[in-house]
Amino acid sequence: MYESEETQDDLLSAYFEKSATAVRHSFGRFEKELVRPTVRYIIDSFQLHPIRSTLLTIYAALSALPILSFIGFTVFVFSSFIFLALCTALLAALVVMLFSGFWLACILVFLLFLSVPITASVLSVYLVLRLALISRQETSVRGAFVQWAKETKVRFIKGEEASGPEPNGSAEPHDESEGETLVVGSVVLDASSSKSAVKQDAGTDGAQHVQDAKPEVSS
């Protein structure tokens, strides 16, 4: 463990020495190639042309503040215009989106009101076509109309009631045959009475068959 820590310390110290050497070498080159020739040139210029050198030095010192102010003002104006342009673009995009959303809402409301009569027309056409089809299958117009009314009631009215929520939470089972009626000519029969009549007819037919069979056996 101690050996690993010593190895890390040696690596860090070696890296620091390399970095310091590179920095010293860079500053040494900068001093030899740029700073010393510039200082020597300024000294020689003051010795050879003292008036011109003094004028240029004073002018550079006085111009430093306006130049720095101009650079700062330019950066400020540039960034301000960029910020205003972005805000304007976002505001314009928001206005366009709100305008488009308003017209979209108006179109959707119009389509909602338009879909109501279209739905009614489609259902009316369907019911008329269904009545015509049932009329072709049935012999009497009254029977076709009754069957069409029952089918329409079961498909649309009872379907809507079944899809709605139950008041007690559960549906009560009921016998649909109890409320159904059978129309024969001008006589209206309930389903229960029709079932009893069918049973009575069956019993009468059985009794007749038994009576017919007795003479054959006696003969």
Task: Please describe what this structure looks like.
With 219 residues, the chain is mainly alpha-helical. Among the domains are: 2-87, no CATH class; 182-219. Helix content is 87%, strand content 4%. The chain contains five helices and two strands. A two-stranded antiparallel sheet has the order 1-2. Helix 1 (2-48) packs across helix 2 and helix 2 (50-137) runs antiparallel to helix 3. The protein is elongated, with a radius of gyration of 53 Å. Mean pLDDT is 75; it is low at 166-202 and 205-219.
Question: Which SSEs are present, and which pair or pack?
Answer:
Layout lengths: L1 H47 L1 H88 L3 H23 L12 H4 L1 E4 L2 E4 H28 L1
Antiparallel strand pairs: 1-2
* Strand segment tally: 2
Largest sheet: 2 strands, antiparallel
List the helices and strands in order: HHHHEEH
User: Which structural class matches the secondary elements?
Assistant: mainly alpha
Distance between the termini: 128 Å
Number of helices: 5
Share of helical residues: over 70%
Spatially, the strands of the biggest sheet line up as 1-2
- Show unreliable segments: 166-202, 205-219
Rg estimate, integer Å: 53 Å
Mean pLDDT: 75
Assess the beta-strand content as a share of residues. under 5%
From the spread of the alpha carbons, the general shape counts as elongated
